[in-house]
Design a protein that fits this description.
The protein is α/β, with parallel strands linked by helices and 402 residues long. 46% of the residues lie in helices and 13% in strands. The chain binds uridine-5'-diphosphate.
Length: 402
């Protein structure tokens, strides 16, 4: 398990001292984080790293995972999409299952911590089902600026009870929800198996075991199989690139248990790219494996992130940390991380030709890729490491303290 000292070499003494100082006013305070999955997706990723560090600096942080039925997760995935503006067939039955699942959970879940942080929409109603004796914070990880109105009207019954809401970017503020906001971008942990440096023997062993050849340049998108990540569009872009340069595409997306759409989208991709899959020019990976994700990001010539909507895009941060050139959509948190032409390329998510041209440019210009990579690592160190996220949370708890 990492301790805060392990990060000194990366972020420097001043940051570590600042963390200890801010934590000292919170010694012994207990914090509960609740979400609905232990793996798959950015939230689980962050909590896995953040909570041990909170505990290491003297807080008492705990993580509870809301259990849900398949019906519940189907509904909350629809809510997740509608929070980002999708239409929804909003029935009383959906509301009932959503609340009932939370009621069931609440009947065997006692919350008596000093602070409660609820992540995303699944456990949102808990605030009305528990005795609220402490500050509750809603951490909304998606772009909430233009949600489906009917859904928000329903969710306001819970949201307005929260003391504060956290979003990843100023652009996500929603004026129709009159509660206090704090902007906190997510972050990555540079020392996890997903992000740390790996010896060449380990990389070779994994590639062999996973049957991934490296005889051609590799383009990779790491993302859940989700329509907002546009994996079908990635195949279209890849086909354009491949007409010019022989290369290989890897799509890696593990199946989060709170995301029932994954298998359906995966099947669509299989159909669309069957010929390329048979020739091993497109490789689909569905296992959950952090070291493999790390390796794929490191062996790729270009990382693509063709999201149509994006909360923040930790996959982009992970690639930037590994000094990889990223061609990404100009949506959500991606432009917070990439400045077009400076440390990567940004494009309209529907501009397939633009994506293909930029990928080709990077495949042909190793110097450009290297320049992007160097700037990217610095950007991540300055803005998007877990130590900065820890500081933001410590500041928040210090300021909201009753
Ligand atoms: N991820 C993973 N395996 C996969 C796909 C994704 O470990 O097959 C991880 C990825 O490395 C990143 C997180 O899940 O850490 C995705 O976070 P992001 O913010 O990019 O997207 P989200 O899934 O939260 O919308």
């Amino acid at each position: 398990m990492q301790t805060i000292e392990d990060y000194r070499k990366i972020v420097g003494d001043d940051i570590i001292y600042a963390i200890h100082k801010k934590a000292s006013r919170l010694y012994g305070k207990s914090i509960l984080h609740a979400n609905s999955t232990q793996y798959g997706g950015g939230v689980a990723e962050i909590l896995t790293s953040l909570l041990p560090l909170m505990n290491d600096v003297g807080l008492e942080a705990d993580w509870r995972i809301l259990r849900g039925t398949p019906d519940f997760f189907t509904i909350t995935k629809k809510f997740h999409n509608a929070l980002q503006g999708d239409p929804i067939n909003f029935t009383d039955l959906k509301k009932q299952i959503y609340i009932q699942n939370n009621e069931d959970f609440s009947s065997y879940c006692r919350i008596d911590e000093d602070f409660v942080v609820i992540h995303d929409n699944q456990p949102l109603p808990l605030i009305r089902l528990e005795k609220k004796r402490q500050p509750w914070i809603w951490r909304c990880h998606v772009d909430f600026s233009n949600p489906n109105k009917e859904l928000v009207d329903f969710l306001k019954d819970f949201i307005l009870r929260y003391d504060l809401m956290i979003v990843s970017s100023e652009k996500y503020l929603n004026k129709e929800i009159p509660i206090d906001y704090k902007i906190i971008p997510p972050a990555i942990d540079p020392l996890t198996p997903k992000n740390k440096e790996l010896p060449q023997e380990v990389i070779s062993k994994y590639l062999k075991k996973s049957d991934i050849p490296t005889d051609k340049p590799i383009i990779t998108q790491i993302s859940r199989f989700d329509k907002w990540k546009d994996p079908e569009g990635v195949i279209d872009v890849f086909k354009l690139v491949k007409k010019e340069i022989d290369c290989r595409l890897i799509l890696c997306g593990s199946m989060a248990i709170d995301d029932p759409e994954g298998p359906i989208i995966l099947e669509k991709i299989r159909k669309k790219a069957q010929e390329l899959i048979d020739k091993k020019d497109v490789i689909l990976i569905t296992s959950e494996n952090n070291i493999l994700v790390n390796i794929l990001q490191r062996i790729s010539s270009v990382i693509i992130q063709k999201s149509i909507k994006e909360g923040f895009g930790l996959t982009v941060t992970e690639a930037l940390w590994k000094e990889k050139p990223v061609v990404g959509s100009d949506v959500g948190g991606i432009p917070l991380q990439i400045k077009d032409g400076e440390n990567g390329f940004l494009l309209d998510p529907f501009d397939d030709k633009g994506f293909a041209d930029r990928i080709l440019q990077l495949l042909q210009d190793a110097d450009l890729s290297k320049r992007f990579g160097e700037k990217s690592k610095k950007k991540v160190i300055d803005n998007f490491l877990i130590t900065r996220l820890l500081i933001d949370y410590l500041d928040l708890f210090n300021n909201i303290s009753p």
